[in-house]
Amino acid sequence: MILEAAEGYVVILPLPGGRFKVTLKPHDAATFIARRCCETSLPPDVIAAFLAKSFGRLCDSLARHDEPEYVQKVLERQIAAYVNPSDLKGKRVLDFGCGTGASTLYLGAAFPETEIVGVDLMADNIALAEKVLAVRRLPNVRFLLSPDPFSLPAGIGTFDFVMLSAVYEHLLPAERNVVMPLIWCILKSQGLLFINRTPYRYFPIETHTTGLWGINYLPDRLSLLYARNCSKWNVREDRSQDWTDCLRRGIRGGTEAEVLRNLGRSGRPIVVQPLGQDRAAYWLSCTNSRRHPLIKKSIARIFRWSDRLLGAIPSTNLDVVIRKDSAAE
């Protein structure tokens, strides 16, 4: 099957087990392509719907829904480190900034007795998420559209757990100051806020948007100039972007301290240590144990002290779980 787009065409080949191989064929070799090929379990009509949103990011978007290494492994590992699976039974989970629903649908499949609500600001994302949900057929999952960047859907209720997976970095500073307290208010007492896959604000290399060394330490104007002229990734697609566009793409990331400041006063936020270990040991367990194990163990020792003294694990990505303490309410 061939699907046509302005930038090129898409070849869809059937594979055993009801899967499909998707390959992008751009007309212009210079066209930005995040990923040229992938496999998916989604049918051609859903693939076509994703294509209507973006040609260059089609395979990247599909991979989020089908490749365990992309979204599933990160969520699975973080949840298992901080809670027992039985703790989610009969509870409500908010997947804030769900995009096209990859993280929401994984949570729905992994925890069938848990109500999962995905929320996103973009109507086209919610429409795509609904199409995938129709394929996955998960009765415990639903999607809601946020009315604007500073609000949550009306009547959304309260939640036992909130997930921000690769989301916090895309909130503009003004949005962080408003929407994070709103999320915190609908989190129940002793509830947990999970944040993952957000780039750490002061890591030496900006790994999310530009791929550039040192840009995290430059003032905004110099960062924009540096990104426009030297970016390896996202900014390369459109060098006319202004600083707000770069912030929306996630160029500044976040830190534990900033998140804590943004949560408001409805309950005291406490950074939680993983079950049976500390955050440094958890970081080490998430790395490839076969590559430079002695160096990584030394880094873990440094992280242990930085966590004790500064409340921070300054790794590539921010990976933190925060509990809403009822004692201060």
Walkthrough of the structure:
This protein is α/β, with parallel strands linked by helices and 329 residues long. It is 36% helix and 23% strand. The chain has eleven helices and 13 strands. The chain has helices at residues 44-53, 58-66, 72-82, 102-110, 123-136, 173-186, 220-230, 243-249, 256-262, 279-285, 293-310; strands at 2-5, 8-14, 20-26, 37-40, 92-96, 115-120, 141-145, 159-165, 187-199, 205-206, 212-213, 268-271, 317-325. The strands form three sheets. The protein has a seven-stranded mixed β-sheet. Strands 1-2-3-4 form a four-stranded antiparallel β-sheet, with helices on one face. Strands 10-11 form a two-stranded antiparallel ribbon. Strand 8 (159-165), helix 6 and strand 9 (187-199) form a beta-alpha-beta unit. Helix 1 runs antiparallel to helix 5 and helix 10 packs antiparallel against helix 11. It is globular.
SSE topology:
Blueprint (H helix, E strand, L loop, with lengths): L1 E4 L2 E7 L5 E7 L10 E4 L3 H10 L4 H9 L5 H11 L9 E5 L5 H9 L4 E6 L2 H14 L4 E5 L13 E7 L7 H14 E13 L5 E2 L5 E2 L6 H11 L12 H7 L6 H7 L5 E4 L7 H7 L7 H18 L6 E9 L4
Parallel strand pairs: 5-6, 5-8, 6-7, 8-9
Antiparallel strand pairs: 1-2, 2-3, 3-4, 9-13, 10-11, 12-13
Helix pairs in contact: 1-5, 10-11
